[in-house]
Amino acid sequence: MKDNFSQQSSSYAQFRPGYPAQLFDFLFKNCQNFDRAWDCATGNGQIASVLAERFRQVEATDISENQLKNATQKPNIHYQLGRAESPDFPDHRFDLVTVGQAAHWFDFERFYPEVRRVMKPGGLLALVGYNLLRVDAPTEAVIEHFYNTILDGCWDQERHLVEKAYTTIPFPFDEIEFPDMASEYSWQVENLWGYLGTWSAVQHFIRKNGYSPLDEKFEAQLTEVWPEGVTKTVRFPVFGRVGR
Asked: Does domain 9-243 have CATH number 3.40.50.150?
């Protein structure tokens, strides 16, 4: 699994979007028990912190030590370094396994057998993520140019799985239909700027070219369509594959 987020882990915790209450309502409705959950590739613990409100114990793993250092702390969340494909857990331990915005990095041939091993009978697996944000037509035009043109060649090939909302990944489970939903925020342009800085492709661009694509030219293009001090509604379409 690639570690594309350790370097910007503090910004990741500050600027990355979370998931709507609707997602957790959907997952909890389909959970049979609330003893233990595993949040795999937890990052800064966004999902784990919500699971901890319902589950007696949450195990949260990630390959990035820096991400875990920035994770939300709760008494019933246990964070540890660990790879998705080789979890150090006993058999039949979890009622729910979640993966947020990370399953596209996994080796599914190794991950899925481990999921089956560590989950209790009837346990739930949820692979969730979000796609490119929606704002308004002028802002989206600037962002899409940045995404597709300026960062062309800087995205990992796994990004295509996100663009397809995980519809093209293998999912050998008894699937439950995923409802339409989105995460919605009121942002100013500074929030967007911080979020763009967490993109893995931005870090790849910097390593490749020796300077940041978030330069004065791009800043001028962005503030032309989104002036400082203006608040806009930002929506991140949320998708998922959920099954037993």
From this structure: yes
- The span from the CA of 54 to the CA of 24, in Å, is 10
Please tell me whether the overall predicted TM-score, pTM, comes out greater than 0.85 for this model.
Answer: yes
Contact (CB, 8 A) for 115 and 172: no
Please give the C-alpha separations between residue 132 and each of 45, 56, 144, in angstroms, as whole numbers: 21, 34, 9
Q: For every residue of 105-150, which 3-state class applies, written as one string?
A: HCCHHHHHHHHHHHEEEEEEEEEEEECCCECCHHHHHHHHHHHHHH
- Bridge partners, 96 (sequence order): 37, 124
For residues 220 and 98, the answer to whether their CB atoms sit within 8 Å is no
Summarize pLDDT for 52-108 with one digit per residue, the tens.
999 999 999 999 998 899 899 999 999 999 999 999 999 999 999 999 999 999 999
Please name every residue paired with 90 in a beta bridge, in sequence order, or none if there are none. none
Cα(109)–Cα(107) distance, integer angstroms: 6
Lowest mean pLDDT among 13-17, 50-54, 56-60, 211-215: 13-17
Q: Domain locations in the chain?
A: 9-243
